[in-house]
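Annex B. Sample input.
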Amino acid sequence: MTPTRKKKVTVSDKFGKPPYKLNVGCGRNIKEGWINLDSAELSGVNLVHDLDNVRDNPIALPDESVERFLLSHVLEHVRDSLGLMQDLWRLARPDAVAVIRTPHGGSDDAWEDQTHLRAYFPRSFGFFSQPFYWRADYGYKGDWNPEKITLLVDAGRCKGLTPQQAFAKTQAERNIVREMVCEMRAVKPAREPKQELMPKLNIEIVNVQ
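Annex B, continued. Sample output.
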């Protein structure tokens, strides 16, 4: 009797046809209708992958198959953030949107957690674009354009301030920003590393209690 061969399970078999929405480093924040990706096999995680080793072991999804990404308090835990964002750019459809939520580097939250490996500031996200590398080539090949950065600031400490004044306060004092949210768009084909193409900061200030 000829043994039956098991059918190889494909990405489409598991997740349906693209485009996909990818919840990167989801932890216990499982989202319905999304591919929930994490390094640990937690309940609800349907794609397990080491986010610190994507240069040598890319995420097991097809090129240009993802239209939306969420990275909620993930990036500060990743050793090779450029490698991760480069692989996500590979997965991204043209004009795909990535929403990144992180602590602000000027807050205790960015440094208290012993699993945080680096801090981020509003200008940090520009280094996920190609134009920022006009001075030198560090081998990063992705290109994400940071379209808007929202700073959720302490309403009590920013009461009566204009957005410009509140932003200046976030640069001069600690623990003003409760959370930072960056919305980025995948640029394909990638732009040239030219200074004149560097994206300008678009900062929105939102007061929170």
